[in-house]
Amino acid sequence: MNLSALPYGSDGIARRTALKQLALACGLALSASSLSALAASFSAPTDFSRRKKTLLSSDQLQLLRELGDIIIPTTDTPGAIAAGVHDFINHYAAYCASSAEQQQLLATLARIEAGARSEFNKAFLTLTKAQQLQLLNAMEQAQNGFSQADRKGLKQLKALVVFGYYTSEPGASQELAYLAIPGGYKGNFKLKEIGRAWALNF
Amino acid sequence: MEKNIYIIKTQEVFDAIVVGSGIAGGWAAKELTEKGLKTLMVERGRPVEHRKDYIGEGLKAWQMPFRGAVEKALVDEQHYVQKKCYAFNDATKHFFGNDKDFPYSTPKDKPFDWIRGNQLGGKSLLWHRQSYRWSDHDFNSNARDGEGVDWPIRYKDIEQWYDKVELHAGISGSTENLEILPDSQFLPPFEMNAVEKEMKARIEKKWSTRKLIIGRTAHLSVPAPHHLAQGRLQCQARNECQKGCSFGAYFSTQSSTLPSALATNNLSIATNSIVHSVIYDPKTNRATGVRVIDAETLETREYFAKVIFLCASTLGTTQIMLNSVSESFPTGIANSSGALGHYLMDHLYGAGAMGRVEGFEEDYYSGRRPIGLVMPRFRDYNEKNPNFKRGYFYMAGAQRANWEHIGASDGFGANFKAAIRQPGPWYFNLSGSGEMLPRYENQVSLHPTLKDKWGMPQLHIDCSFSDNDWKMMEDIADTAANMLEAIGLKDVKKDIRAKRDWNPGLSIHEMGTARMGKDPKTSVLNGWNQAHDVPNLFVTDGACMTSSASQNPSLTYMALTARAADYAVQQLKLGKI
Fold this sequence. Notes:
The structure holds 2 protein chains of 2 kinds.
Chain A: H1 13-25, H2 32-41, H3 58-71, H4 85-96, H5 99-120, H6 129-140, H7 148-166, H8 169-175, E1 186-190
Helix pairs in contact in A: 1-2, 3-4, 4-7, 5-6, 5-7
Chain B: E1 13-19, H1 23-34, E2 39-42, H2 72-78, H3 136-139, H4 141-145, H5 155-169, E3 171-172, E4 186-187, H6 194-206, E5 213-214, H7 225-229, H8 253-263, E6 267-270, E7 273-281, E8 286-294, E9 300-310, H9 314-322, E10 347-348, E11 351-357, E12 363-366, E13 373-375, E14 392-400, H10 403-406, H11 413-421, E15 426-435, E16 443-451, E17 457-462, H12 467-486, E18 490-496, E19 537-539, H13 554-573
Parallel strand pairs in B: 1-2, 1-9, 2-6, 3-4, 9-19
Antiparallel strand pairs in B: 5-13, 7-8, 8-9, 10-15, 11-15, 11-18, 13-14, 14-15, 16-17
């Protein structure tokens, strides 16, 4: 049940129809109170105008975009680029990270770029996929001149990509499984009924 | 909600004033109005209307600008304490207090985390909804080991009031016939998953003294007809409760007690009304009303009534009482005993253990169950204590690892993504809730000089864990780890968060500071939650508690409040107060 298509805003016919379908899908009796509860439980999205500042230069953002694609590529579902993970991190880091965390992220991007220059004498974005992976694997394993601190920085960057992707709409509702209104808890549910992990615990 | 129930200024002398609108205040208002009393509910915060004002409800992670995180600048400025609460996020933050506006002080080496919910509905919108009766083991605890004063009541005094509040609120759980954790009037229990059932079987086979049961929670697992009639619907297992629930599936003031109180037409509400103090008349030895500061205009006004219920939260109530000084009561109203402000308790949380369960790869669950499991108390009950007084119970649960855990592994690309798509291994945890002793030294007082922006003297909170508390936390962690290893779990890790970041207060079960007792010389309230010194003054929130037991206390506040309201109305009708 994909609820992302549910229309927001005023109580139009489309919205009421969608809510009725939702109520049926949830096994809710179609009482007036259940429909009004459902209507009320779908808030309008919050204001994204709170999100204007960014942390990264356009070069840094391009590098982060590419790294996102290497970490979580498009497969049979969209990857990090399609989910806009780089843009999310650019805002998130500006607003929610401490200055130490911001510096760590910037330093990691710089370290990756410097690693590409010293190992291949090229910009990271111009390396082949195999070269990019070779470099990142060495960094994650703290080998070939990469330190434990470099590994820690890469882990932080990966954690941001993972957070940004699996809390995005495609990451949560296409790559993983998500029910906005599960309708109840089933304790004897088998994995094969859904075939993948649930996305969110909140 | 009709707008005309909200009042600002009035000359009316009400039958009753209820200060606070959370779990206790909502119950006081419901019971008093249903018994015919014209009642004024006084709330320091803004109105919150059921459904309409749940502005974060239904928001999915990607509909929030920072996916649930709150801007650091805002947290640093306004929520530097509240951020520590597990339920604080971008979709709930408006139900938490603004720390800048609600300052308090502590000794430098004794941090205390005071979590606040200052709006109509109070923390009933934010609570974790676990609901457990106390037993005679709990009401006898102080008498048994001499810590604190004896409770003036026993289980038989409160049993019928538990019945009453449970039927109205709706408590889901399983009937177990345990003396240590008496059954409630239950709605059907939530299900356990396959691994939880296996853990239960393994533990109960090894220990006849230990049971693992589904938690008891104020959720409509299956609503009764009277719940449906009130507009409350079945729990949908979203587990996003603190955003507000338009299904009314969990008990809150808004979903449950306020509609009942409003239906009587006996309720008025004054919001944005900060109670400064209780007005006392020495000629009659009665509380006659409350002095109020308007939260928005800072103007002062007074409200009057024949009986006053303080339900402003444990520390909020005590702050008001300490600030209600007169010639008769120079250290705070109804404080001839000197006990007011003392014997502050919380629960000992954050100690426990976790381990990996092998197998069960085909098993999963659907829905986000809003409750875990519990293992009722065995320490100081049917098993001996190693080296400390009192005991604890465990909260428990089994879940599979997901992207938050697997995403930390090494690797890149399609394989990395594919590994996260599948749920990871099962983990089972045991996490304690320990009883904190009532100690005179754990106390609150009014700061001699510091005031908040409304001119109220700030509370100075001086509270720390005792040697007994630390020994209990060690035992909680050790016993959990040993139990998990004994039933075959792998990678068992134990933890005591109080050593790192869990301060007193953060369990949000602050209790005591205006305790009940038999003797007016050593306690503030009698067995009816009535002030020994001032017969028309009642305190029915957590401030009244004489010991802390180990169970979540809110259900007991509900029952004590309903019982006290019944008594107060009787006394009023008899002309005794």
